[in-house]
Amino acid sequence: MARVTISDVAKRAGVAMGTVSNMLNHPEKVRPETREIISRAIKELGFVPNRNASVLAGGRNPVFGLVLTGLDHAFSLQVSQGVYDAAREAGFDLMITSADNDDILANHYVDYFRGARMSGIIVEPRPGADWRPDWPDDIPTVVLDYRSDSCDLCQVCADNVQAGVVAAEHAARIGRRRVAVISASDDIQSLNDRWRGIRSVADHAEIINVDDWRNPRSGYEAGVLLAERDDDMRPDFVIALTDVLAAGCIDGVLSRGYSVPDDIAVMGCDGNPLAWGGPIPMTTIEPHGYEMGRAAVELLVDEIRHADEHRHTVRTIPSRLLIRKSTDSGRH
């Protein structure tokens, strides 16, 4: 059986071969209704594009590369879905990789995407505050969930300082005065920013650092420690800077016979639904990974389509409080 060619697709779709070529290599240049007609012809004919030939000819793959720090947080799943939906709407495919919080592996994937001549890259860097991009700026790139004035790339990030402010204001609004914060000893930009926001509202807040912000056991041990204090030293509101720590803290408080939220209210701060499976629904910051993923694609597409006019920008996604049972006793 003869191999289906671009010419065959163009004939079936009733368009020029150059239009089909643009559809395959520069879909942003093709009107949505035309892309749909060509896609239907491709499917009907069983056409398989020769991507290698396209790249060798100087084109770019109509694919975005997404480099995530890991896949152990609902944020990554939300981001992936947001990026996927927006990329498909813009006519691009998506390839997803996980660097497992390893800068060397993340750079390897970026190099791979550059070598494969992807149309653009979205990178969620390791959460350390001292991260810097370590590759040439020869391909449109958006940095996700990281904020730095020295990073000359588009950035999309959560407003983690505002998240801390929102959490501390919630404690004050329901009449809680002894606030404890569970954080991590690691230098993580998002946690540092949340703590900074909390202190701007509740400068009396006490911070408890644990070893592993991704382990509910660390939150459990902190919850036990706080619950076992004397009455005049025991906090009445705990802000865990991750939902995983908050889930562990709730279990630790309950294990010592105290009520959540009546005796000690507990909330998380990063909107991670994977950590919401405990006995008490958790107050936290509403998840926003999907919005961030879509915003990253919007910036990437703008840079691709308007390269001459494009200016790198920082887009910040606001934090919104999600009040649930762990801080809502129904008495305020």
Structure description:
- The chain is α/β, with parallel strands linked by helices.
- The protein is 41% helix and 17% strand.
- The chain has helices spanning 6-13, 17-25, 32-45, 51-56, 74-89, 103-115, 160-173, 189-201, 216-227, 243-255, 289-305; strands at residues 61-68, 93-98, 118-123, 141-144, 154-158, 179-184, 206-210, 237-240, 265-267, 284-285, 314-317, 321-322.
- Strands 2-1-3-4-5-11 form a six-stranded parallel β-sheet, with helices on both faces. A four-stranded parallel β-sheet has the order 7-6-8-9, with helices on both faces.
- Helix 5 (74-89) links the parallel strand 1 (61-68) and strand 2.
- Helix 1 (6-13) packs across helix 3 (32-45), helix 5 (74-89) runs parallel beside helix 11 (289-305) and helix 9 (216-227) packs across helix 10 (243-255).
- The longest helix has 17 residues, at 289-305.
- It is elongated.
- The model has no long low-confidence stretch (mean pLDDT 89).
Blueprint of the fold:
Elements: H1 6-13, H2 17-25, H3 32-45, H4 51-56, E1 61-68, H5 74-89, E2 93-98, H6 103-115, E3 118-123, E4 141-144, E5 154-158, H7 160-173, E6 179-184, H8 189-201, E7 206-210, H9 216-227, E8 237-240, H10 243-255, E9 265-267, E10 284-285, H11 289-305, E11 314-317, E12 321-322
Parallel strand pairs: 1-2, 1-3, 3-4, 4-5, 5-11, 6-7, 6-8, 8-9
Antiparallel strand pairs: 10-12
